[in-house]
Amino acid sequence: MNDRYENAEKLVVQEVAPRDGLQIEPTWVETADKIALIDSLSTLGFARIEAGSFVSPKAIPALRDGEAVFQQIERHPGVVYVALVPNLKGAERALASRADELNLVMSASQSHNRANMRMSCESSLAAFGDVVRRVKDASGGSQKVSLNGTVATAFGCPFEGAIAEDRVLGIVDIYRKLGLDGITLADTTGMANPRQVARIVSRVLERLPAAALTLHFHNTRGLGLANVLAAYEAGARRFDAALGGLGGCPFAPGASGNICTEDLVNLCAEMGIPTGIDLDQLIVLSRGLPALLGHDVPGQLAKAGRNRDLHAVPDYVLQI
Fold first, then answer.
1. Number of structural domains, the chain?
2. Pick the catalytic residue: 157, 249, 260, 268?
3. CATH number, domain with residue 162
4. Spatial separation of the C-alpha atoms in residues 232 and 248, rounded to whole Å
5. Residue 150, beta-bridge partner list
6. Residue 6's pLDDT band (boundaries 50, 70, 90)?
7. Annotated catalytic, 249?
8. Taking CA 20 as the corner, what is the angle to CA 286 and CA 116, rounded to the nearest 5 degrees?
């Protein structure tokens, strides 16, 4: 039986550990260590790295050094360095720090948006309009910056439960009308299941090309990689993931980490789906996370090793 994809299209992994992964870490990660992590990731074959955010330091103190990080990382040709921004002020800071792409976030759920962004969805959209106009002005000059819009809680909300698919599709349409270049559907608290994912992704891809769509899954309930495969088979090609499985939403109860980058890349390697990422070096980098953060991380592959990493037969077996 052939368990590998034939002539599989590339799966693009956007590494989000430096932003989404570190945002809830209770221990401060030094700016130099953040920069070293991003610089290491930049050498492993990633086309996109979410390097930080420009939110209020009071809201996310773990990422209060966004300017220093973006200004001091070593930029690699072909790598897009993404920044999350909540509003026009954040966008101004990101532009000044030479972010290549700005990621705007609004929840499909009103209650989660108020918890996360401290405003209604309608107010978020109005703020997005200000950011779009500012970025278009910047892009009219020498600075070329793209815009991505994330639909958080697209597959379910921890406060409201199920989210109507038409609600998600309506937000996608609004984002496109605003002029956003890309769209992310985020399973913020890991509530998605593969059938739901396949259905929604298929509907969204009727509205925009696969190159403009990113899926952001959490592994909160153990379905993260299953949801990736469901989305990939429905036509999605770009996915967020975090080294070591770090991360979680600080404004959503029970939102544990993102899908693990090395686990995802290993899945792709085993099934013949190209990613262009150096898996062996990725494992080495992930194995350094516990020392950096002071605790174990959720990822499995760095603990178990690849399935080709065989072990010596015990001596007692040789004596049988």
1. 1
2. 249
3. 3.20.20.70
4. 23
5. 105, 184
6. confident
7. yes
8. 160
